[in-house]
Amino acid sequence: MSLFPPSTDAGRTALDTLLSAPSRALVAVDFDGTLAPIVDDPRTSSPYPGVVPALAELAGLVAKVAVITGRPAETAVSLGGLEQIPDVTVLGHYGGEHWVGGRVVAVDPPPGVALVRSELPALVDRVAAPEGTWIEDKGRSLAVHTRRTADPDAALAQLHPHLVALAERAGLRVEPGRMVVELRPQGVDKGAALTSLVQETDPGSVLYAGDDLGDLPAFAVVAELRARGVPGLRVCASSDEAPEVTEAADLVVAGPAGLAEFLDGLMAKLRAS
């Protein structure tokens, strides 16, 4: 099994460092679109075959394997079977929840989440959102999906200014994604979540894999770490829906299937060494 080479010098350096000193590596990955293919109904999501077992094997060799997701941590664990990964840390709600060893630690969500929960359904009706628009209540945030509509981009454009106004009143932030807009608390994103893992593990190298706009803050943290002398590799599970992530990556793979193949190649190299 061959290992895909990164396209940047910094990425190649990071991969070489991970392979030479795996016990000091932090490997963190997104869930939807990275471990699991995007589906119309997120409640039916599941990881690409083989990707979780590969992470489970990798966890025995590296310092830490973590999953960073916008979903509730327990939801990601349940859908993904992530408890199979030894000592895995799952940061749900962009780091607002910390799952490890079957236990979730989290602070209470700000009151603005309850305000959005009470007003968002009427807002979607009032602006005559297209058929197929639906609201996902994640507990600590709410998301409006348009993937099922006839024209998802047009539906998002129609909804966006109204969602921004509601988020401002609620003291929340608006986070765009792949045919979805999420209203969530301020001060939490995948960059902050990755930073917390770096502080906990003090890694010698970092690999972060993602696919969506919400992963760009984590990519930015990898860049900051490299500037401080910690090698870092940014992997994009590519999608035509988020070209900005592809452009920012050191290594682009073909979605969750490509990530599974990359992890298989990585494990083959580590076994050989």
Highlighted features:
globular; 21% strand; alpha/beta; 9 helices; single chain; 273 residues; four-stranded antiparallel sheet
Layout of helices and strands:
Layout: H1 9-20, E1 25-29, H2 51-59, E2 64-68, H3 73-80, E3 89-92, E4 97-100, E5 103-106, H4 111-126, E6 134-137, E7 142-145, H5 152-170, E8 172-177, E9 180-185, H6 190-201, E10 205-210, H7 216-227, E11 232-237, H8 243-248, E12 251-253, H9 255-272
Parallel strand pairs: 1-2, 1-10, 2-3, 10-11, 11-12
Antiparallel strand pairs: 3-4, 4-5, 6-7, 7-9, 8-9
Helix pairs in contact: 2-9, 4-5, 6-7
SSE topology string: HEHEHEEEHEEHEEHEHEHEH
Terminal CA distance reads 14 Å
Question: What is the tally of beta strands?
Answer: 12
Taking the sheet with the most strands, its summary is: 8 strands, mixed
How many helices in DSSP terms? 9
Radius of gyration: 18 Å
What structural class results from the helix and strand content? alpha/beta
Helix content: 40-55%
Give the overall silhouette. Answer: globular
Strand order, largest beta sheet: 5-4-3-2-1-10-11-12
- Percent strand equals 15-25%
Low-confidence spans:
none
Can you give the mean pLDDT? 93
Q: What does this protein look like?
A:
This protein is of the alpha/beta class. Helix content is 41%, strand content 21%. The chain is built from nine helices and twelve strands. The strands form two sheets. The chain has an eight-stranded mixed β-sheet, with helices on both faces. A four-stranded antiparallel β-sheet has the order 6-7-9-8, with helices on one face. Helix 2 (51-59) packs parallel to helix 9, helix 4 crosses helix 5 and helix 6 packs across helix 7. It is globular, with a radius of gyration of 18 Å. It starts with 8 loop residues before the first helix and ends with a helix.
